[in-house]
Amino acid sequence: FYTGNEGSIEGFAENTGFMWDIAPEFGAAIVFAEHRYYGKSYPFGNDSYSSVSNLGYLSSEQALADFAVIITYLKEVRLPHAKKSPVIAFGGSYGGMLTAWMRIKYPHIIDGGIAASAPVFWFGNVPAPPEHSYDDIVTRTFINSGCTLQSLSASFETIRKMADSSNGRKFLNERFHLSSDSQVKNANDGEELIYAIQSVLETMAMVDYPYPSNFLAPLPAWPVKVACKAFISAQNPEQSALASYKAVNLFYNYTGSEKTLCLLGGACGDPFSALGDPDDLFRPNWAITNYGVEFPTATNIVFSNGWLDPWSGGGWRLTPTFEGSLYSLIVEDGAHHYDLRGEHPDDTQSVKEVRRLEKKHITRWIKEAREKYNQQKRITKDRILYAEIAENIF
């Protein structure tokens, strides 16, 4: 059972091949459940985003309740022969958080969960990750892929200087192939361009897979290594600036279908806005209050993280370890929920081992769930027998 996250469920189904690969081994049905308010799951149709009142039902708690109801309905109505079948949850990123939280909130409905790249510690209070850990991991991923801090900084500084002059701005607009409504017109636009480039590099680190992929965008194998080649080969300021363009073009236009790029937020649309101040309508630290952080009473959860993934800084544990039946698995050369992707000829040895361990845990969870069910069945039979004996005696 995939706990759908923030997007259309089809994309997650296409990029979670691990479930498809192992399901036949367990004789399992596969269910991908879409998160309310995403894809086609609009509770109020086209008006779902039209008011605060309608949006009031968009929350992780409501999504988890949806999943619980869906599983119960499927087992009791649509798949009655699976009424006593164990259920294993899977999720990546926010979906991984939902998987972990669902096992915590509904342990009677799911028997275990694979929470991949789930930044469950990425909240404001203890034990929050270091303030700059996301960017630190991005930097580490790029340096390990051949870049240097000097080459990256030189590119940004060159763009900053170019944005200060008319000739420099002309160079940026033309050589970056910026669309007419996304032109660098002043120094502030130059800063915005740098921010856009850095955002691309951060996202590229998330999807640094060892083979061509199209999870967030069509990309070649090891895209960070490809991007780094331009940065480290730059011989002059113009080439240094263009290294950033090549990285951005690689991410947004690897297929070569786009003639121009729209990079400045005011023209292209900003998907995020300010989070608000401490006095806004949101409940401070509610995720911590609602779900906890260390999960001392939780059982049967695997938290997996990729060492290349910037989100791993908010992972449950950053080294391979276990506490009770909570396990931390690390894909040493893995990006964002790499282990949930389908088997590939170019898979690294590290991800193969993590998937092997995940299958081992899933096998154990299923065995334990069936043993528990059989034990309950025997107890029920014994109670019926005792009741019949007592009735005959009295």
From TrEMBL:
Q: Which Pfam families match?
A: Peptidase_S28
Q: Which UniProt keywords apply?
A: Glycoprotein, Hydrolase, Protease, Signal
UniProt KW Hydrolase keyword: yes
User: Which superkingdom does the taxonomy of this entry point to?
Assistant: Eukaryota
Annotated signal sequence range: none
Q: Which Gene Ontology terms cover its molecular function?
A: dipeptidyl-peptidase activity; serine-type exopeptidase activity
Positions in coiled-coil regions: none
One GO BP annotation is:
proteolysis
Q: Which family does it belong to?
A: Belongs to the peptidase S28 family.
Which protein, by its recorded name, is this?
Uncharacterized protein
Q: Which organism is this entry from?
A: Meloidogyne javanica
